[in-house]
Design goal:
CATH superfamily of the largest domain: HUPs
CATH topology of the largest domain: Rossmann fold
CATH class of the largest domain: Alpha Beta
Number of helices: 25
Radius of gyration: 25 Å
Shape: globular
Number of domains: 4
Distance between the termini: 37 Å
Strand content: 15-25%
Structural class: alpha+beta
Strand order of the largest sheet: 2-3-1-9-8-10
Number of strands: 19
Helix content: 25-40%
CATH architecture of the largest domain: 3-Layer(aba) Sandwich
């Protein structure tokens, strides 16, 4: 893993003043194994390397002819790329992943970079074109932030690197903050600071002294359907691609950590990791467990019973039980989140902090996570049969509806197809609007009111639902933010379920093989027979730890948050500020309310970022 940064000036040298040095000092907060910089004219590139044992992918700043690259990069399709650029695999054994990318860019230009598969954030300086080309992987695993300063560009893996540049405006983005407070998603590329943006996943940023463009290069989509001879062949294909996505994320040498929760996703990752290494001592599992008395803010169920079954079944020799209650200060996870992001972002992996500290103590540099499985790979497939209609399997679709006693939707679709258009429009208008929960806003924005008739007649597709989950803001920002938080521990998180090959494979499956009436995650569960213990493969009672929020402590400082946001509303009359429901925030922080409890524990409905904002504004006041 690497972090990178750069300065692109339209006029004058890039190293004007001490901007580059300041960015380097701020970015090297985790003590890189190697630091490199390259400067040519108005372009400065910086690269900080963390050695992980993945020899071929670990390189600093690389050069080919006049091209220069700095990359946070792990490639999964080296063989395919070598064939495209015409390099013999034997001769290429000494080439880094970054050098292969340069060969591809030299041969095929920007469009050729759409063939890259893996986790990456890349910056290529092309002096002949007077251009800087920046690219981010389609799943958004590796972070990339940038700021535009007139005709100049500043970028870095972490927002702190961009903010270190003395010309970058550090003003807060009020719209971003208020959207977080309202429970609404911010703009996809927005950050806590108005001048800093995210480069969206799968997008390319092309900078030249007189212009800048950002466009999608490769984004996730639904591919053509695959065909299988039967469910057994489909299950085998699923097992093989999941095994591949785990194996390619294992380094050649050194210990590897696995975040093992006892759920199906992390258990599958642990099992395939053990099957992919010759030395079982390399795999270390880490499981968060409840310790001591189970109080009102502790989980009602300890996951260790399931995790220990996986440890025994897979032969994991190094397993660690991690206590959630190791925070010396209840505000520490919030302060770490604010420090990592130079403000507040929409999600924080703070519950992983204790395990990652232990991983660092054991010299682990790579950790595998089951995250993103729920988004697509293991999302409940109880509605998969609706795709049969899109696939032209009408009789099979009707039979599936009858098996599941789902009669209304096909009747509504049929009515929408055969009734005269005026009658359909009249039925939609005559239906009362659906009430919805729009976070901490008062009332419902008029533009979001949807009638029940419109909702019922809207074509439904399970594949499009999965595509929406895979591309939603929360999932991608979480992976990005976990990378930013993990580098502090000299650790690289990797997500087999976020492999674009696996996601597109699942989106291409024929509906008749992906589900069965009465069984959630049918294909996934049946594919893991013998891979994980039966008690894990068939479990449906996965619990979420609720002892993670310093709720009572934060309630005491929430008044300062209210004051700050009220000032924003009064001074700028921002439409969102005028709609915030502070009484609801107070209600959702109250442990005495029964509806604030879930699965036997107090589970505040106030999102983490709202609590972090309270802490942030309280610290500013002091």
């Amino acid at each position: 893993m690497s972090t990178l940064y750069g300065i692109c000036r339209s006029e004058g040298p890039a190293s004007r003043g001490d901007a580059g040095l300041r960015m380097l000092e701020v970015m090297d907060h985790w003590a890189a194994d190697r630091r490199e910089t390259s400067e040519e004219g108005g372009i400065l590139l910086g690269h900080l390397l963390l050695e992980t044992g993945a020899v071929r992918s670990e390189a600093g700043i690389e050069r080919l002819d006049r091209l220069t690259i700095a990359a946070d990069l792990r490639l999964d399709n080296r063989g395919e790329l070598l064939h495209i650029v015409g390099i013999d695999p034997v001769r290429a054994s000494s080439l880094s992943d970054a050098m292969i990318v340069l060969h591809l860019y030299r041969k095929s230009g920007i469009e050729g970079l759409s063939r890259l598969i893996g986790d990456f954030a890349i910056a290529i300086h092309d002096p002949e074109a007077h251009a800087m080309v920046c690219l981010r992987d389609p799943m958004g695993v590796r972070p990339f932030h940038y700021a535009i300063l007139g005709n100049d560009l500043v970028f870095a893996s972490e927002p702190r690197g961009v903010l270190a540049h003395p010309e970058v405006d550090a003003s807060l983005d009020e719209d971003f903050i208020l959207r977080l407070m309202a429970g609404l998603p911010p703009d996809p590329d927005a950050t806590f600071h108005v001048s800093i943006r995210h480069l969206l996943p799968g997008h390319v940023l092309h900078w030249q002294p007189d212009k800048l463009s950002i466009r999608p290069l490769r984004v996730l989509c639904i591919p053509p359907l695959q065909r299988f001879r039967g469910p057994a062949e489909c299950r085998e294909a699923f097992r093989e691609i999941l095994r591949t996505t785990v194996a390619c994320r294992l380094p050649e040498t050194g210990p590897v950590g696995v975040e093992l929760s006892g759920g199906l996703d992390s258990s599958a990752v642990a099992a395939f990791a053990m099957r992919s290494v010759s030395d079982a001592e390399r795999i270390h599992s880490f499981t968060n467990v409840a310790t001591g008395d189970v109080s009102a803010v502790q989980p009602a169920e300890d996951e260790w019973a399931y995790a220990s079954a996986v440890v025994s079944h897979c032969g994991i020799r190094n397993s660690v039980r991690v206590s959630q209650g190791v925070w010396p200060d209840p505000f520490q996870p919030l302060d770490l989140h604010i420090s990592d992001h130079s403000g507040v972002d929409i999600i924080s992996p703070f519950w992983l902090e204790p395990a990652r500290r232990l991983m660092r103590e054991k010299g682990i540099r790579i950790c595998l996570s089951g995250f993103f499985g729920d988004e697509v790979a293991t999302h409940p497939s109880r509605l998969h049969y609706h795709d049969l209609l899109d696939d032209g399997r009408l009789l099979l679709y009707l039979r599936s509806c009858i098996e599941r006693r789902d009669y209304m939707l096909p009747l509504r679709r049929l009515a929408g197809a055969i009734l005269p258009a005026p009658l359909v429009r009249w039925s939609r208008k005559s239906t009362s609007p659906v009430s919805a929960d729009y976070g901490y806003l008062l009332g419902t924005p008029p533009s979001t009111r949807v009638s029940q008739a419109e909702e019922s007649l809207r074509p439904f597709s399970h594949r499009r639902l999965l595509l929406g989950l895979a591309t939603r803001l929360h999932a991608r920002r979480r992976m990005q933010n976990e990378s930013i938080a993990a580098i502090r521990h000299r650790l690289v998180p990797r997500y087999p379920f976020a492999d674009i090959r696996l996601v597109e494979f699942i989106l291409s499956l024929p509906a008749e093989w992906t589900g069965r009436a009465g069984t959630d995650r049918y294909l996934y569960r049946s594919s893991l027979t013998g891979i994980v213990p039966e008690m894990v493969r068939l479990r449906t009672d996965k619990h979420v730890s609720t002892g993670l929020f310093p709720v009572l402590e934060l309630k005491a400082v929430s008044q300062e948050l209210r004051r700050q946001l009220s000032e924003i509303g009064a001074s700028h009359r921002h439409p969102l500020a005028l709609r915030l429901d502070f009484k609801r925030i107070d209600r959702d922080l109250e442990p005495g309310r029964p509806d604030n409890w879930w699965e036997g524990g107090f589970f505040p409905k106030v999102p983490f970022h709202i609590l972090a904002l309270a802490r942030y504004f309280d610290e500013r006041r002091r």
